[in-house]
Amino acid sequence: MTKHIFRTKSISEFISETKQDGGMNRVLGTFGLTMLGIGAIVGTGIFVLTGVAAANYSGPALIISFIIAALACGCAALCYAEFAAMVPVAGSAYTYGYVALGEFWAWVIGWDLILEYAFAVSAVAIGWSGYFNNILTNLGIVLPKALTLAPYDGGIVNLPAVLILCVIAFINIHGVRQSATVNNIIVGIKLAVVALFLALGFSHVDAANWVPFMPYGWSGVFAGASIIFFAYIGFDAVSTAAEEVKNPQKDLPRGIILSLIICTILYIAVSAILTGMVPYLQFKTTAAPVAYALQLVGYHWGAAAVSVGAICGLTSVLLVMCLGQSRILFVMSRDGLLPRFFGHINKTTKTPVRSSLLVAVVSSILAGLVPIGIVAEMVNIGTLAAFIIVSASVIILRKKAPDRVRPFRCPCVPLVPILSILFCGILVIMLPTVTQIRFVVWLAIGLVIYFGYGYKHSIITKAQKGTLTAAQAAAADDSPS
Description:
Blueprint: H1 2-5, H2 11-17, H3 30-41, H4 44-58, H5 62-86, H6 93-100, H7 103-138, H8 159-173, H9 176-202, H10 217-228, H11 248-277, H12 289-296, H13 300-334, H14 353-369, H15 372-376, H16 379-400, H17 415-430, H18 433-457, H19 459-465, H20 470-478
Helix pairs in contact: 3-9, 3-11, 3-13, 4-5, 4-10, 4-11, 5-10, 5-11, 5-16, 5-17, 6-7, 6-16, 7-8, 7-13, 7-14, 7-16, 7-18, 8-13, 8-14, 9-11, 9-13, 10-17, 12-13, 13-14, 16-17, 19-20
């Protein structure tokens, strides 16, 4: 069995499978992909986590925490870019792991990504609900707590969180072109709001607020980096749309790298001005640090604009994350590791409708019934684990297939992938022990599912039992009985 679980799948087999059911619509270019990346990245990180990290971990050295997290993500992004150009197939790290390491590690990465996206979507939906309820309250409309809180927090269901996920699912089901258009509009609004904050806050910066610069020491800076790492989650979502890109060999690397660079610059600028406007300890009392800072200096209208921007930011994160989650489930199901029912493309919309609906149902249950504290803490570790495996895959595939055509090559291999592994490994160690334990439990559940279902129903397993290729086995599996 050991030999079989590490069987790899060729790039040509993956690409041939993208033509099943007519394939998806290839409508995205570099601009659309970059906007998808920004849409997924800029949200909770700027509007929520900046205050949390500054007050409890980094202080004014929040800038350094963002740089450390950006270095970890930057090294990982270069590894992703090499694979995205070489294997232009939906599924992101799951697909790359299948090509380089084999089916078992592909399953582990895929299971990690399911954890990352499902909990990230739910956490952001709960945050969206909080901002939405705050805006309604300011307008004089107060929803009952029974419909805005999870049962654990004294309510019945977080209805706004459920409803926004239903709206997001409706948009994603109707096509990537529609999703990208909505995302572009929302991203434009939230970037304008961030620019407004930078313009208003610059003249109110007091250098005295940056002293002491590193109140919690280097341990606090690194702990802050592990917390705000959540802020960078999203650039990998760009690669999940690979089958809907016009020129994936060029556009995917550009979209991944450009979105990360732009967002890193924004994060550093916002954290510098934010901690310069307000003493870092004051952020302990607020979950909306950017709006809070503007209120303190008298820009109440600016604070209101930031709240609108936060709603837009969180909406675009939901849009891209749900799209990414549905594509990962779709590819895993197409490979037979999950029920094939979810591995089909709707002939009318050219989208994986079934997997999109599954994502909407599961994330709505989590967002509506589970408190945010339990949901949010599981996101980072799943992402970090996926980054580590993808980075290792670059090194391994360079050794196994040095002559393979690589439209984009990660520079300084193996140094950059090794740095990515080290950075991400350190951030995993800095996470709470209880999160690490829950992650191990999640992996154990995944192994039970893989050996109980995925291994037996894998398309490669069916192909090896006969004389068919993986693509032919998939086609035969889809044919009427």
